[in-house]
Write a structure and sequence with these properties.
Layout (H helix, E strand, L loop, with lengths): L11 E7 L2 E2 L9 E2 L7 H12 L14 E8 L2 E9 L24 E9 L2 E7 L3 H12 L19 E5 L3 H7 L12 E8 L19 E11 L6 E15 L7 H15 L6
Parallel strand pairs: 3-6
Antiparallel strand pairs: 1-7, 1-8, 2-6, 4-7, 4-9, 5-6, 9-11, 10-11
Organism: Actinomadura graeca
Protein name: Type I-E CRISPR-associated protein Cas5/CasD
Keywords: Antiviral defense
Length: 275
Amino acid sequence: MTSQPAVQATTAVLLHLSGPLQSWGERSRFNQRDTLRAPTRSGLIGLVAAALGRRRDQPIDDLATLRFTTRIDRPGTLLRDFHTVGGGMPRRLTVATAEREHRRLDKATLVSHRYYLQDAAFTVAVTAADPSLLEACARALRTPVWPPYLGRRSCPPDAPLLIATVNDDPVAHLTGLPLARPAPRRAQAVTVEFHADAAFTGQWPDSPDVSAHHHVHTQIQDDPVSFAPDARHYRTRPVYRRHIQLPAVQCAGLGVDYVTNLATYLKHSTGEHTP
């Protein structure tokens, strides 16, 4: 009788977020729709919840245990969309007021400013204490119930979200995966920024000083308690940030070049042949 090898538990789900536009709002109100420079915790939990088929009024307590560490592969550039609604329409077709009436024609046009990230790309490690939760999230992201989007419904991804599930130190993959950016012409290394919603853990390659892992960069209000339309509620949470130097040869380019390098990495590190 031969013993079966032990099945190692999933430690992280690795995601790739890229598209022509992304928008990760934190303080969007009325006619001002902002975006942060990296995916928000509320946006990422919402992405997973949509993949699982959760309605907005369903609880997300289990997803609140997820932790996200984001690598900024390409920061993108900021785009402001000057957006108008209702201008030039007959009064009966203008936007309704809070009193359920229609606006006067001279005040019918509503102007809003909507901000997006253009051509940004991120690699995200999703971790949790419960391996079964990570595996459920990975299955949902592979075959989502509802179409995924990158912060706003008008921002679809341009590639599959799920890179792989792993059962070892996710930091090794987060620092070792190919970077979705062109290689610099002369530099031997590139500076890469990381954000996390909890203190950094694991074996980071650059810093033996673990106190740097616990330095809070800022605080933002994007930790969701409920997505219910009539009871949306978000808590404030810390943002941890750090920069490390990665070899320039890790820059895998764009499009087919990036996907080819990603597939090669996965084949050697996880045994999988495709993202």
